[in-house]
């Protein structure tokens, strides 16, 4: 029994090299597949967030609350992110590793879903916000581990492509949720209080499922990437910025600021999309608005897949700059346009929003070395913008009695995030680390040909295990570079 638990130990020292930073494409397939399943199950895990945009409008109707107050759902959900990414989840990540954070986040998510069940049944808006806060802590924990893990596990030059492809499956949940919201949960009138009872069983099912998923992660052999591994990557690519103190990692803090502004704008637009179309488009009720939101989220998912394809031929930083610029160009007309024209502007905006969040994560982590885990917490913590910008948009909409006019709020935050896209493309201190990682040869060749021929070297290392073969020394890795 002791041997069993030792084999599945959840603690690894960040000072140990596990060789996981040198995983080849083949070796990284299994762990990336497992974590991508986690993103895909954000169609259940991200499903609750996708459903929030529909519940936001429904709570306004059934509980007769203002648009600003209904944004408490987003405030509770995204307000939990910095508590997780800078607090408990980041502490577990730095002291134990990625796998324990996956398990911790799934357990928190399950607890929050169980709490949400009676709150929905009894129409308690405050109680449901508390449940969403717990769920936000769970998903914030998962984001704290999943996003950087996808970025660092495998050849560095494909980091942006990996995280965008994985997150593309996450977008499926945001498509499914509004569809179920309109076709399954809220099939009657928008003011029908009984409609909320349909949602309770969803949260109960999710709670059971995520607890089972936590068990799967415990028994799965996931290679652990330590700070020592990331320091090696930074040194090998000559992009190491960890020779400076953490408080001087200005690129990191700028990326976190951009994440705050961008995510806030994205969440604000999605949260009030139904309000926008019901106000500006004739003969559009909340149920139809939810269906239209599903179409917009479909455009979001499609934009992410296209972005991954473009990154194969164009540097990710250029794709990022183009996409974010298009967000600014197309959100602006939605302020003054109405009917199908205004809605089309929001559709196109969501299409170009698609790659921004994961690409900011990947670019912001470039060259952090031993600060990678700590730094990723700051970037993921920027998701808290989703708690701040929607209330501003809701207050502006209430003040002017127009959601369309209030779209000037996310426009301003897009412009603020654009400053990072400009710097990462035109400021050498930002651009050079990104480019050095984009051309790195690490992980493109097998680390140990002798092990490959002997049936070893499958890329799944036990925690704390260090390769001692001469074929894996740093100098020989440099000699084999193309």
TrEMBL record:
GO terms for cellular component: plasma membrane. Gene3D superfamilies: MFS general substrate transporter like domains (1.20.1250.20). It is found in: Cell inner membrane. This is L-fucose-proton symporter. The chain crosses the membrane at residues 29-52, 101-121, 168-186, 201-220, 252-274, 318-336, 342-365, 377-397, 409-427. Residues 448-482 are annotated as: Disordered. It is a multi-pass membrane protein. PANTHER family: L-FUCOSE-PROTON SYMPORTER (PTHR43702), PROTEIN TSGA (PTHR43702:SF3). The gene is fucP_0. Keywords: Cell membrane, Membrane, Transmembrane, Transmembrane helix. It holds the Pfam family MFS_1.
């Amino acid at each position: 029994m002791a041997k069993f638990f030792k084999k599945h130990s959840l603690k690894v020292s960040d000072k140990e090299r596990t060789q996981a930073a040198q995983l080849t494409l083949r070796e990284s397939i299994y762990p990336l597949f497992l974590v991508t399943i986690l993103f895909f199950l954000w169609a259940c895990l991200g499903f609750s967030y996708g459903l929030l945009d529909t519940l936001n409008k429904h709570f306004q109707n059934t509980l007769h609350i203002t648009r600003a107050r209904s944004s408490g759902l987003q405030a509770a959900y995204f307000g939990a992110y910095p508590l997780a990414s800078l607090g408990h989840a980041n502490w577990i990540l730095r002291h134990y590793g990625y796998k324990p954070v996956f398990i911790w986040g799934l357990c928190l998510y399950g607890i929050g879903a169980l709490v949400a069940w009676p709150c929905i049944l009894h129409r308690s808006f405050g109680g449901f916000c508390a449940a969403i806060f717990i769920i936000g802590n769970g998903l914030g924990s998962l984001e704290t581990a999943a996003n950087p893990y996808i970025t660092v596990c495998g050849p560095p030059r494909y980091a942006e492509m990996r995280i965008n492809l994985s997150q593309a499956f996450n977008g499926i949940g945001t498509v499914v949720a509004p569809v179920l919201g309109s076709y399954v949960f809220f099939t009657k009138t928008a003011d029908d209080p009984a409609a909320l009872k349909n949602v309770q069983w969803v949260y109960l099912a999710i709670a059971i499922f995520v607890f089972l998923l936590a068990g799967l992660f415990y028994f799965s052999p996931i290679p652990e990437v330590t700070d020592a591994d990331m320091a090696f990557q930074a040194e090998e690519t000559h992009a190491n910025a960890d020779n400076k103190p953490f408080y001087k990692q200005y690129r990191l803090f700028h990326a976190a600021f951009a994440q705050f502004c961008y995510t806030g704008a994205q969440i604000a637009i999605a949260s009030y999309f139904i309000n926008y179309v019901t106000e500006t488009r004739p003969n559009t009720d909340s149920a139809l608005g939810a269906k239209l939101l599903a179409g917009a989220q479909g455009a979001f998912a499609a934009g992410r897949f296209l972005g991954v394809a473009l990154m194969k031929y164009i540097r990710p930083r250029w794709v990022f700059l183009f996409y974010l610029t298009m967000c600014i160009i197309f959100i602006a007309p939605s302020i003054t346009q109405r009917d199908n024209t205004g809605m089309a502007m929001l559709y196109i905006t969501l299409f170009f929003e698609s790659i921004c969040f994961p690409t900011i994560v990947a670019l912001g982590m470039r060259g952090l070395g031993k600060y990678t885990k700590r730094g990723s917490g700051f970037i993921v913590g920027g998701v808290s913008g989703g708690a701040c910008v929607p209330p501003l948009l809701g207050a502006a909409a209430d003040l002017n009695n127009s959601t369309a006019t209030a779209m000037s709020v996310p426009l301003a935050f897009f412009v603020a995030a654009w400053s990072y896209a400009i710097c990462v493309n035109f400021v050498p201190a930002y651009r050079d680390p990104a480019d050095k990682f984009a051309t790195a040869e690490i992980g493109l060749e097998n680390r140990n040909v002798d092990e490959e021929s002997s049936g070893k070297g499958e890329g799944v290392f036990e925690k704390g295990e260090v390769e001692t073969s001469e074929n894996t020394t740093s100098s020989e890795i440099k000699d084999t570079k193309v």
